[in-house]
């Protein structure tokens, strides 16, 4: 990826806070969900309960690694 494209993508990520996650269900039907997100560079964080369909249908996708986080209020 060249630097111009990298900067354009980074600008889009930094200017917005919602995105759409698209996956395929087990029956092959597409599933699209709008979620809020936060990012650090090209790493994107968004909420997904362990039982959420978007989490189940994206397992096995090399571009998606799931990590559990706990957010506590101060």
TrEMBL record:
<dbReference type="Pfam" id="PF01243">
    <property type="entry name" value="PNPOx_N"/>
</dbReference>
<feature type="domain" description="Pyridoxamine 5'-phosphate oxidase N-terminal">
    <location>
        <begin position="6"/>
        <end position="54"/>
    </location>
</feature>
<protein>
    <submittedName>
        <fullName>Nitroimidazol reductase NimA-like FMN-containing flavoprotein (Pyridoxamine 5'-phosphate oxidase superfamily)</fullName>
    </submittedName>
</protein>
<dbReference type="InterPro" id="IPR012349">
    <property type="entry name" value="Split_barrel_FMN-bd"/>
</dbReference>
<dbReference type="InterPro" id="IPR011576">
    <property type="entry name" value="Pyridox_Oxase_N"/>
</dbReference>
């Amino acid at each position: 990826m060249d630097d111009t494209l990298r900067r354009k993508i980074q600008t889009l990520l930094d200017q917005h806070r919602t995105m759409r996650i698209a996956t395929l269900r087990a029956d092959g039907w597409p599933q699209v969900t709008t979620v809020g997100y936060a990012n650090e560079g090209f790493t994107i964080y968004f909420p997904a309960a362990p039982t959420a369909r978007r989490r189940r249908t994206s397992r096995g996708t090399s571009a998606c690694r799931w990590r559990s986080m706990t957010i506590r209020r101060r």
